[in-house]
Amino acid sequence: MNKSRRKLCQLMATGAASLLTPWPLRRAVSDDFRSPNERPVVGCIGTGSRWGFREDGMFKGVGSFAMEFGDVAAVSDVDANRMNAAALKVRDLQAEAGRPSDVAKEADYRKVLDRDDIDLVTIVTPDHWHTKIAIEALRAGKDVYCEKPLTLTIEESKQIRKAVEETGRVFQVGTQQRTESSQGFLKAIAMVRDGRLGKIHSIKIGINGAPVSDSIPKVDVPDGLHWERWLGQAPLVDYRWSPKTRDAKQYWNYTNCHYDFRWWYAYSGGKMTDWGAHHVDIAQWLINQNGDGQGPTRIEPVVANHPVPLNERGEPTDPTRYNTADRFVVHVDFPNDTQFRIGSEFRNGLLVEGTKGRIFVNRGALEGSPVEDMKSNPLPDGAVEAVYGGEPTTHMANFMQCVKSRKTPISDVASHVRAINTCHLGNIALRLNRTVKWDAAREEIIGDELARNMQGREQRKGYETDA
């Protein structure tokens, strides 16, 4: 907590608090943050949908959560339209709460990192920007909250973990299923720890299929969007956009930018890393495979369907359409005869099977005979707290508490990269449509030079990650 941190002059008014954050966070704020202690100064890098603005106009996301605990002093985005709207929202809400309302707008995120008065940053950008910005923020002495998936490649996973170890900064990854808002997952893990399912032998992980698109035409870049900078490390390509008419309920248009970056391998990993970052993380936590030297041994593609042809190197050959796998199933072997089946063909969530029974858990359900049995035989007192490492709270509250205590947050980098590496390996197997073998201790694909080369990728000059 550096000496330039602003002090909270008065207790946040109830009305202002209701404007700032959704109700689950308001009830989760600890006394430490309600009292007139020093509040962290926050810089927000990336101000799109996950940061706060939804297409229905609601302001709900990382930005609103950050303002519950800190004072946002700067926002940054390569889309000036989003950045200007974010600055106005922050200014108005913080002024209403009687807090600092002078909000800087920086098209270049590095100017946010250069400010000595900013204590921590939120990073809510497309996936291909996460690691570079996060490493630079750590080295600038900032604590970091970064959306998932944290990395684009296995090589980036090594780089970001090394930077955290070297700098000792507090880093929370945005895998919110580990927190209070998703206690069904914590209870599921507590049940396994208490032996309710016996020895776990398989987990079926449903993460939905990715969307497909027709050919998307190239069009002029919208005013205010710095397209070349948005592309960053990815190849320099045309901007594409067309209206989305396939499903009237969809908010988003077809594009290779903003929300739809998820469906292009140049910027993301499709559903495998989008939902996989959540569910595979919980599954590896559940079977105690998120520690040093742990991880899968073999990844086999069973269903590998892509909406565009891939060449022999697993590279998409059609630059006009979404290209991440739309239908897929991979079998992932772990030590101790445990197997994950990860795919688009299953109900979203985790079906956990053991020698004594099975349960299903997702964000809205915790089902199965062992769950029913808990009515007459509840878990021991403190079982969920033992899984979490204390009293479960909201994700941003946990991060801010760790900023003060310097403890490791619940969604730490080390465990996250082991889970997201499983997802990266799944995508490599899908793109090559062949089995991949993994040495978890060395963090290296074995016996397949092409697959091993896909652990990293070439980065466009000027946008390389400085390891």
UniProtKB/TrEMBL annotation:
The record's section on Pfam families has: GFO_IDH_MocA, GFO_IDH_MocA_C2
The UniProt record lists the EC number as 1.1.1.18
Q: Where is the Gfo/Idh/MocA-like oxidoreductase bacterial type C-terminal domain?
A: 380-463
- What InterPro entries would the database entry show? Gfo/Idh/MocA-like_OxRdtase_N, Gfo/Idh/MocA_oxidrdct_glycsds, Gfo/Idh/MocA_OxRdtase_bact_C, NAD(P)-bd_dom_sf
One Gene Ontology term of the molecular function aspect: inositol 2-dehydrogenase (NAD+) activity
Sorted UniProt keywords:
Oxidoreductase
Coiled-coil boundaries: none
Task: Provide the transmembrane region boundaries.
Answer: none
In its keyword annotation, does this UniProt entry include Transport? no
The protein's enzyme class:
oxidoreductase
Query: What residues does the Gfo/Idh/MocA-like oxidoreductase N-terminal domain cover?
Result: 71-174
| Protein name from the UniProt record | Inositol 2-dehydrogenase
Record gene name: iolG_3
